[in-house]
From TrEMBL:
GO terms for molecular function: arginase activity; manganese ion binding. Binds 2 manganese ions per subunit. It catalyses: L-arginine + H2O = urea + L-ornithine. One of its GO terms (biological process) is arginine metabolic process. Its cofactor is Mn(2+). Signal peptide: none annotated. GO terms for cellular component: cytoplasm. Mn(2+) binds at H101, D128, H130, D132, D231, D233. This is Arginase. It holds the Pfam family Arginase. Its EC number is 3.5.3.1. Pathway: Nitrogen metabolism; urea cycle; L-ornithine and urea from L-arginine: step 1/1. Belongs to the arginase family.
Length: 306
């Protein structure tokens, strides 16, 4: 189905329940202020804004048995899972407005279920500074926004690994991680053991964004559902200061644009997360505006003259 005929549903999840800093709960509103809906409508899409999901408040408590706010994280992810799955059932393209990256457990669990029911192959393009493959044994913080990929692959508490109809929701081979540059030592060993496909910044520096993306997208075919999980800290903080966990040395504006345009060129984008936007650290909403600009490129806006 061409992007022109797509019906896009914006689903807000305003919580920083899995994060180490307050503020990403304001992300959905910042994206709306930056006119995400109107900009996508300008691309010929039918856009409906479902408003915000509701869930428990952030108790800002220390870890219990290795996890911070586990019950609340489960509640929020359950709400995201149900909302995203409902949009996919309706034939809509869900755009989950986070919130912190723990919410990808819910959204990708829903997308994985949808793909199994449709008989389509799932490919998750994970745009992030972090691999997010921590476990409670690896990280002392207990912040679950560092654990979503691990949980999706079955490494985590039962309440999160068993969120959907199948456990685990996905396998490591569905992920293509782009822009990684901050990985804990124990996490590094684990991603090597399980075989996550990672295109870190060193690799991108060596071969260029174009060649890296060609590799990452090589096996996408007409029977592939592409889910993009866009953590705004993927971008270099010099252009995107409005995130909770900045890591220097990320993609610049042109590299990020090329990345998004090449994903768009596959024609297979079927769902999207936009997460970890933290207006408390931003300057005049510039990071939200940049994120919206890049999402437009993901949905077909191009600088190509040819």
């Amino acid at each position: 189905m061409s992007p022109v005929t797509r019906s896009v549903a914006l689903v807000g999840a305003p919580t920083d329940i899995g994060a180490g800093h307050r503020g990403s709960s304001m992300g959905p509103e910042a994206l709306r202020v930056a006119n995400l809906g109107a900009r996508l409508a300008r691309r010929g899409m039918h856009v409906v804004d479902r408003g915000n999901l509701t869930g428990p408040l952030n108790p800002w408590a220390p870890p219990t048995d290795g996890y911070r706010h586990l019950d609340e994280v489960v509640a929020w992810n359950t709400a995201v899972y149900e909302a995203v799955y409902a949009e996919l059932k309706e034939g809509n393209l869900p755009v989950m407005l986070g919130g912190d990256h723990c919410l990808a457990i819910g959204s990708i669990t829903a997308v994985a279920r949808h793909c199994r029911e449709k008989g389509t192959k799932l490919r998750v393009i994970w745009l992030d500074a972090h691999a997010d493959f921590n476990t409670s044994q690896i990280t002392p913080s207990g912040n679950i926004h560092g654990m979503p990929v691990a949980c999706l692959c079955g490494y985590g508490p039962d309440a999160l690994t068993g969120l959907g109809d199948v456990t685990p929701a996905t396998s490591p081979d569905v992920f293509r991680q782009i822009g990684i540059r901050s990985v804990d030592e124990g996490e590094k060993r684990l991603v090597h053991e399980v075989g996550v496909d990672i295109y870190d910044m060193r690799y991108i520096d060596e071969i260029g964004m174009k060649a890296a993306m060609e590799e990452a997208l090589a096996d996408i075919d007409a029977n592939t559902h592409v889910h993009v999980s866009f953590d705004v800290d993927f971008l270099d903080p010099s252009i995107a200061p409005g995130v909770g966990t900045t890591v220097r040395g990320g993609p610049n504006y042109r590299e990020a644009q090329l990345c998004m345009e090449m994903i768009a060129d596959t024609g297979r984008v079927g769902s999207l997360d936009i997460v970890e936007l933290n207006p408390a650290f931003d300057k005049r909403n510039q990071t939200a505006r940049l994120a919206v600009d890049l999402v437009e490129s993901l949905f077909g806006k191009s600088t190509l003259m040819r």
